[in-house]
Amino acid sequence: MERASALILALEKFGQGDYIGESISQLEHSLQAASQARDSGADDELILAALLHDIGQIIPLEQSKEVKMKLDNSTQNVGRVGHETIGAEYLRTLGFSDKVCRLVGSHVAAKRYLTAVDRSYHDSLSSASQKSLQFQGGPFRGAELQAFMEDPLQDQMVALRLWDDRAKVEGIEDTTPRAMAYLDMMANHLSSEQ
């Protein structure tokens, strides 16, 4: 319970900053994604991955390790380079399952996949998400695309990405469960991984 409580508190404390290029906080974005996952009937691991998918943007890092994606000739920040990998590795050190870590680590890959197979998906992305895609390698091609399509978690990775994309709604804090609503789920998950 201690690790779960500490992570929930960190999410609440450090997630208050703006969600890059969007009109809600990083915390609200994470809570909306988790709520969508829960409402869809997803399993606990996928719900936790939705809640924590951007933890690599939220957790404080030593300045020397942090590299931000900045637009040319601009000070606009569109996120941490490799935040999905940072987040997945951070969660792995806390004892989260391989599935949760792979899902957290895949939400950028899922965006690259969806932009490769569906032009309308690219057009539906927010401006900030379209800009960050440039730094993230653009749409998948060739072997990367094939590997993603063959991944056994592909459907869950895509579902997480779509919740991520839709988790940008202003003014629904009163109807979105707060982070503490996931405490028992997280604690049970971490204790089962021991």
Give the topology:
Layout: H1 2-14, H2 26-39, H3 44-52, H4 55-58, E1 68-70, E2 77-80, H5 83-94, H6 98-117, H7 119-124, H8 127-135, H9 142-150, H10 154-166, H11 183-192
Antiparallel strand pairs: 1-2
Brief overview, please?
It holds the Pfam family HD. This is HD domain-containing protein. By secondary structure, this protein is mainly alpha-helical.
Termini distance? 12 Å
Helix-strand string: HHHHEEHHHHHHH
Strand content: under 5%
**Count of separate DSSP helical elements:** 11
- Total number of β-strand segments? 2
The main pleated sheet reads as: 2 strands, antiparallel
Sheet with most strands: strand arrangement = 1-2
Q: Mean of the pLDDT scores?
A: 87
Cα shape: globular
Q: What structural class do you assign from the helix and strand content?
A: mainly alpha
Rg, Cα atoms, Å: 16 Å
Q: Considering DSSP H and I runs of 4 or more, what fraction of the residues is helical?
A: 55-70%
Poorly predicted residue ranges: 63-78
Pfam family, one: HD
Protein name: HD domain-containing protein
Organism: Paecilomyces lecythidis
Domain HD: 27-111
Structure report:
The chain is mainly α and 194 residues long. It is built from eleven helices and two strands; from the N terminus they run H-H-H-H-E-E-H-H-H-H-H-H-H. The protein has helices at 2-14, 26-39, 44-52, 55-58, 83-94, 98-117, 119-124, 127-135, 142-150, 154-166, 183-192, and strands at residues 68-70, 77-80. It has a two-stranded antiparallel sheet with strand order 1-2. Helix 3 crosses helix 6 (98-117). The longest helix is centred in the middle third of the chain and has 20 residues, at 98-117. The chain is globular. The two termini are 12 Å apart. Mean pLDDT is 87; it is low at 63-78.
